[in-house]
Every structure is written in structure tokens, then in C-alpha cells.
Amino acid sequence: MATAAFNIVRLDPGCFFKDANITKPKIWWGRKLYTKAMVASSPRTLQASNDKAHEDVRVAVLGASGYTGSEIIRLLANHPHFRITVMTADRKAGQSIGSVFPHLITQDLPDMVAIKDANFGDVDAVFCCLPHGTTQDIIKSLPKNLRVVDLSADFRLQDILEYEEWYGQPHRAPDLQKEAVYGLTEIWREEIRNAGLVANPGCYPTSIQLPLIPLIKANLIKCSHIIIDSKSGVSGAGRSPKEANLFTEVSEGIHAYGITKHRHVPEIEQGLSDVAHSKVTVSFTPHLMPMSRGMLSTIYVEMAPGVRIEDLHDQLKAYYENEEFVCMLKKGDTPHTRFVRGSNYCHVNVFPDRNPGKAIIISVIDNLVKGASGQALQNLNLMMGYPETTGLLSQPLFP
Ligand SMILES: NC(=O)C1=CN([C@@H]2O[C@H](COP(=O)(O)OP(=O)(O)OC[C@H]3O[C@@H](n4cnc5c(N)ncnc54)[C@H](OP(=O)(O)O)[C@@H]3O)[C@@H](O)[C@H]2O)C=CC1
Ligand SMILES: CC(=O)N[C@@H](CCC(=O)OP(=O)(O)O)C(=O)O
């Protein structure tokens, strides 16, 4: 590593650590102690730390009038380096953010415009928070030099035939699909750093792959018979009005949907198969819960022969030891959605089933943060060479 070039690490506005004469500097960042090598593991970090320390990254939020767009804006209010220069909307084009989202009324931001009227000359990076199916054409038309994080499902499936089968429409940007990197940050960090286009994972796939991938990588569970039962808050369905999401339809009850055919099945299977190096299939059933945000996945697995529940716990604990956002809970503690609400954290634990050889894994996230906008910001931080926790260390909102 070019240590000579690495003489300043920016922590927050106005706060610099000079480390030129220190052989093993360590930096507190959130709840983790990072070594110099961890913070500076990409050449882009060096560049951002030295050359661009006083330059903002100019960001466009496409779909700013939606739930994930508004979460990006909320998170960027605490970001020292990213500045929003363009915001778009469809039906709400022409309106200010404060009129569409009064909780953001203090943000001094440009009014939202239609995408066709947006000026991308004043933009370095894009958060694309649009419905799947609309996104491929729009990203294809953006200037090529922009770094893009797409929150929709349009670039998540590597096999475009699979996309066409599950999304019921032809893929309209197959060349771009080849470049897209799947943005499950903790797993694909090195690929994300250098990506031009990151396909941010779906909320269910995030909550499911984070606990399963380390166990599959270590051959601790059988890849057959994985059963996943997930629950989501209603914001997962977006802000556009739909009869099925009326208060009267979702309150005082819970129901399953998309049984056997939810479009996140191929995304989950793709991610698990990639690390298993063989085709993995899962049984997945999502449920809609009468809460605005939050997601809980309960995953039933068979352990590999000779594996004990402690082995699963130890593997997940070790795998995520140095990760800020994935917390392995103490043995016996149950993950609750209310303890990650509004934050980028994922809480995980494993429990022995009463049937020998089987285990139950529970994970929770906030679908709008780690399941969408928080992970998107984590990815753009990496792509622009900033510590990936920047702007994301707000603690969960409780009660
Ligand atoms: N909600 C969640 O928990 C998660 C969502 N996602 C994905 O993120 C993306 C955004 O989701 P979410 O924010 O919930 O959705 P919303 O429905 O809340 O927002 C959609 C946004 O896109 C705009 N829009 C709609 N249609 C068009 C169009 N044809 N052209 C241009 N702009 C359009 C809307 O503008 P206007 O309001 O003016 O109509 C709005 O700004 C989706 O692909 C979703 O699947 C991913 C993970 C989790
Ligand atoms: C409650 C609810 O409706 N949730 C959405 C998933 C939201 C999400 O992560 O998905 P995408 O980014 O893939 O759209 C659904 O089931 O379609």
C-alpha cells in the first residue's frame, strides 16, 4: 500500500487524523476500531481522503417522492460529503420535498423535477429509487460517467431470461446487466468498490442472505430443505396508493402473499447458489404485517452431519466480528424488529430446533434502511471511497 500518500483520514467535517509518523494507527469509527489498512483498503479511499477532502459528491435522487427516496434524503442530511443536487418525481414533479414529506421540511433542497428535465451535468452519482420495470431504460439513458446505485430489482438477476420469467417483461438493458454488481455489501464489498452500477438487493433477500451465506460458505448447513418465513412492514410496498395496502386491509391481521411465486425467490436462490457453487432452492413465503416498517425472517435449516448449534453461532459471530452493521446477538436473545427500527443494523441469532440436527435462524432489519436506502448509501460510500459507515451510524429509534 502507498503509505506515503496516506497521510490524512477524514472522519467528519473539520476532523482529520494525521498518521504519517504512526506505524499502526487505529481509528474509531462507530462501534468498531478500524486499522489503517481497513479504512484505506482501496486506492479510491486514498484519493478521496487526500485529493477530494473538500469536494462534495453531487448526488441525484431519482424517485425522491417515494419511501426509499425520502429515506435517502433523511440519511444524507447527516452525510458530510454527499450533497443532493437533483431530485426527480413523476406525479409529484414540480413540488418541494417539504410539501411531499413534511418531516424533511428543514432540508434546503431543489424542487423535484421530471426525469426528462433533470440536469445531470451537475451530478457525480445517482440513487435510482424507481419502480422495477421503469429503471432499465432510465439508467441506460444516463451519462456514462455517473456511479449508479439502483434500488429496484431491474439489475439484480444475472440471467436475463430468469428476469423475464419472474418479472414478466423483456430485459431492456442486457449489456448493462453484464456490468451490474450485486450490492449485498458485507458479502461483495470488493466488487462493489469498483462498480459503475450496483444492483441494491431486495429487502427480503438482504435479511435472508446475510445469515445464510456465511453458514453455506463454511459448509455448516445442508443446502436442501431451507424454509424461509418472512414478515414485512407495509412501507415495503411503496407509497403509491394500492387497495391492498389500505389501513383497513392491513391492520388487525396478518396474511401471506406471493406464496411459491414471490419474485424474490430467484434473487435469494442466485445469491445462495453463488456461494454454494451449486444450485440451491428454497421455500419462501412472505407475510404482510400491520406495521409501517421492519422485517423479520425466520429460517429453518438442517445442519450438516456432526455440526452443533454452537458451530453456527460461532461462525456467524466470527464472520461479522468486524462488521458495523451485522450484529450476532448473545446466545438465547431473540431479534426484534423494534430494536433495528430506523437504522442500518441487522440483528441475527440461531436457535436449536427441538428436532435433532435442525436449527432456526432469525434475522431482523428495517426494510427501508438496511433493506433499501441504508444499504444503498453504504454501497455508494464504498464506490466513492469513503468509509462505508458515513452517514449511517444513527442508532435505532426506540421505543
Ligand atoms: N419500499 C421498500 O421497502 C423497498 C423498495 N425497494 C425498491 O425501491 C424502488 C422504490 O421503492 P419505493 O420508494 O418503496 O417506491 P414508491 O412507490 O414509494 O416511490 C416510487 C418513486 O418513483 C417515482 N415514479 C413512479 N413511476 C415512475 C415513472 N414511470 N417514471 C419516473 N418516476 C416514477 C414516484 O414518483 P411520484 O411519487 O411522483 O409518482 C416515486 O418518486 C422500487 O423498485 C422498490 O421495489 C427495494 C427495497 C425495499
Ligand atoms: C411488503 C411488500 O410489498 N414488499 C415488496 C418487497 C419490497 C422490496 O424489497 O422489494 P423490491 O426492491 O424487490 O421491489 C414486495 O413483496 O414486492
Automatic annotation (TrEMBL):
List its EC numbers: 1.2.1.38
The reaction(s) this protein catalyses: N-acetyl-L-glutamate 5-semialdehyde + phosphate + NADP(+) = N-acetyl-L-glutamyl 5-phosphate + NADPH + H(+)
Identify which top EC class this enzyme belongs to.
oxidoreductase
Q: Which PROSITE patterns match?
A: ARGC (PS01224)
Pathway the protein acts in: Amino-acid biosynthesis; L-arginine biosynthesis; N(2)-acetyl-L-ornithine from L-glutamate: step 3/4
**Record's NCBIfam families?**
argC
Name the chain's protein: Probable N-acetyl-gamma-glutamyl-phosphate reductase, chloroplastic
Organism expressing this protein natively: Punica granatum
Organism taxonomic ancestry: Eukaryota, Viridiplantae, Streptophyta, Embryophyta, Tracheophyta
Gene field = LOC116197889
